[in-house]
Description:
Helices cover about 75% and strands about 0% of the residues. The chain is mainly alpha-helical. The chain has one domain.
Amino acid sequence: MSITSTVRTPSKLRQLIWIPQVALALAIGGGGLAKISGDPAMVTMFDDVGFGQWFRYAVGLLELAGAVGLLIRRLAALAAFCLAGLLAGAAVTSVTLLDAAPFTPLAFLVVAAAIAWFRRPARSR
């Protein structure tokens, strides 16, 4: 005999989490498009980072992939988890290489972590 335990999030909460999920997808997707399209502010920022412009394209593509993943139900938890890692790197980069406040990436990181938590798949024991 097997005992199955699942983690259930109340349905209202599961519906409400779509609001920050879509908002984060739009914000991250917009940033990714700005990086890929060569927005002068992004080009300058990545020059200041010092890893080269290839890094701007890589981060932009990762952001776009994460934004799309947030909008696909089966991928939302994984996309949010991966974006949380990307945003942690952005916060560290802001402080160490750009001498900027990390408030925006940290705020987005908190939202991404909450989405990853609430969208995580139920597991069996």
